[in-house]
């Protein structure tokens, strides 16, 4: 089947790795148990889609991470469908820098995902600059969660998690300024700071956005407006699978007022450029 789109934001959902993703299930009103990788691959394949897949390394917070080797193994089994991204725990210091390099150079992972809320760090903290420097040299994109999260939502004190870590300005703004060669995909439209994110994208061409985590029906009007115009080359299709299914996302995307020429860019062309995936 012809490639129709690339979902740049899916979480590990296999029975071995469902833990951290399942904790967000209550917020998204889906009970999550593990989904065998074959089932996920078959779903994406049947829809003509590829998927970027990642977990989040929070080992310094005492949480299990299945490992970049595991992600590389899954992606290696289904290279026509899965694009593996690494995760490293920024608090691991030089070990994080070395692991990012190993994950990209030796394991062939194609980008690095960060979750500042869950990993409890400010991206513009100078202590993490060696990591951004390294990833910038590796020439692979990063995905940084921005804005609200389902993680911890509705639990006492939000599970102790701080939303502020994921505020685009100043935290990502400063990283984008200091590392102009680092490609930063701000994951989700960034609500309640989506307008800050739009400003950041207009100002810094190394910042992109994925539309994951929300049904497109609920995208703020300014996000749709800029995605349809000035920012149409840096907005990406993403679901947050398994929390939102690609069928639902695509169905709801149809119902939103995007220009036809922009739809193809969001679904496929922009991600091709981001990930250097050539047309056949
Ligand atoms: Zn996500």
Task: Describe the protein's architecture and organization.
The chain has 280 residues and is an alpha/beta fold. The protein has one domain (5-275): TIM Barrel (Alpha-Beta Barrel), CATH 3.20.20.140. Helix content is 35%, strand content 12%. It is built from ten helices and nine strands. It has helices at residues 19-22, 37-46, 68-77, 94-105, 129-138, 168-178, 194-203, 221-227, 246-254, 260-275; strands spanning 5-11, 49-54, 82-84, 86-87, 112-114, 142-145, 184-187, 207-210, 235-236. The strands form two sheets. The chain has a six-stranded parallel β-sheet. The protein has a three-stranded parallel β-sheet with strand order 1-2-3, sandwiched between helices. Strand 6 (142-145), helix 6 and strand 7 form a beta-alpha-beta unit. The radius of gyration is 17 Å and the shape is globular. Bound molecules: zinc ion (ZN). Zinc ion (ZN) binds at residues 9, 11, 187, 212-213, 240.
Terminal CA distance reads: 12 Å
Secondary structure tally: strands: 9
CATH-defined fold name: TIM Barrel
Give the overall form: globular
- % residues in beta strands: 5-15%
SSE layout:
Layout: E1 5-11, H1 19-22, H2 37-46, E2 49-54, H3 68-77, E3 82-84, E4 86-87, H4 94-105, E5 112-114, H5 129-138, E6 142-145, H6 168-178, E7 184-187, H7 194-203, E8 207-210, H8 221-227, E9 235-236, H9 246-254, H10 260-275
Parallel strand pairs: 1-2, 2-3, 4-5, 5-6, 6-7, 7-8, 8-9
Helix pairs in contact: 4-5
Bound molecules: zinc ion.
Residues 9, 11, 187, 212-213, 240 line the site of zinc ion (ZN).
